């Protein structure tokens, strides 16, 4: 049985948009037409690709496996179309971005939009592990992450090096210093991101290597929550140096006695690196980081 191309394309659009309505709008077809194409694919093979809950759709395990395949299929189609058309104008398109911080990503998207106003974007913020996973699962086209990967399926470009610093309330005894040795964290309460965060991973690893045991650990989900918890007196926080915002109530601390340097990377699937929109994003973000650190 020959598989229906229109059915695959409809399935892929819905899986990508996570919505029949959004997929129909993106493909410029009616929602009933799109639904019929997906249902036809399911009926032809006697399978269920989506769980439909009201207006929401969720991929079944089989649907997730098929989405990985269709992502490769339609990525190859996009590359072939770009190659044959010789397009460099980027008049239209949608770029899905994942990042572990919005700061530099927003600047890159703003610059791309200025050059190519016909493009649209979506941005997902998560920890470093989640960001890499989204690219690997085709849920995002490109990513900015502090997590380096040796996976050959992932194309990464180092943008810059940063380092972790600690910060504490100005009234905290440790804030009498501008720099403290790693041993100063023994018995201290800490505020750190959730597991999967490169900030937490590196800091905990350095504490372990030095044989340092903190007291209590408050785990939170975002950088903003780390800052709020530290300001509220729950403990000492850790953050990338470039992300620390001066505040009269908070004191920045350089930590000595261990290597707290961390890289920042742009990443995409290896087979997608030559797609014009993906390539343009990586080039733009490289240029922005280069302007900051000539």
Automatic annotation (TrEMBL):
PROSITE patterns: HTH_LYSR. Residues 3-60 form the HTH lysR-type domain. The keyword Transcription regulation applies. The keyword Transcription applies. It comes from the Bacteria. InterPro entries: LysR_HTH_N (IPR000847), LysR_subst-bd (IPR005119), WH-like_DNA-bd_sf (IPR036388), WH_DNA-bd_sf (IPR036390). Transmembrane segments: none annotated. Keywords: DNA-binding, Transcription, Transcription regulation. One of its GO terms (molecular function) is transcription cis-regulatory region binding. Belongs to the LysR transcriptional regulatory family. This is Aminoethylphosphonate catabolism associated LysR family transcriptional regulator.
């Amino acid at each position: 049985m020959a598989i229906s191309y229109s059915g695959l394309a409809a399935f892929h659009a819905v899986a990508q948009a996570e919505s029949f309505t959004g997929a129909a709008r993106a493909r410029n077809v009616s929602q009933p037409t799109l639904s019929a194409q997906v249902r036809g694919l399911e009926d032809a093979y006697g399978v269920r690709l989506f769980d439909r809950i009201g207006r929401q759709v969720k991929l079944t395990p089989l649907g997730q496996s098929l989405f990985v395949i269709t992502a490769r299929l339609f990525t190859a189609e996009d590359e072939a179309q770009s190659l044959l058309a010789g397009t460099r104008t980027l008049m239209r398109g949608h770029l899905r971005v994942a990042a572990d911080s919005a700061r530099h990503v927003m600047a890159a998207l703003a610059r791309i939009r200025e050059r190519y106003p016909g493009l649209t974007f979506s941005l997902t913020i998560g920890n470093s592990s989640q960001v890499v996973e989204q690219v690997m699962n085709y849920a995002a086209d490109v990513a900015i992450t502090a997590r380096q990967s040796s996976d050959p399926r992932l194309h990464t470009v180092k943008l810059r090096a940063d380092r972790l610093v600690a910060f504490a309330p100005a009234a905290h005894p440790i804030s009498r210093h501008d720099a403290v040795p790693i041993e100063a964290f023994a018995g201290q309460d800490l505020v750190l991101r959730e597991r999967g965060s490169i900030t937490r991973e590196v800091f905990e690893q350095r504490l372990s290597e030095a044989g340092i045991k903190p007291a209590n650990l408050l785990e939170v989900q975002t950088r903003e929550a780390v800052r709020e918890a530290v300001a509220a007196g729950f403990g000492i926080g850790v953050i990338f140096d470039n992300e620390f915002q001066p505040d009269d109530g908070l004191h920045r601390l350089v930590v000595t006695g261990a290597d707290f340097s961390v890289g920042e990377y742009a990443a995409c699937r290896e087979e997608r690196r030559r797609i014009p929109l993906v390539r343009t994003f990586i080039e733009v973000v490289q240029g922005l980081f280069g302007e900051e650190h000539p």
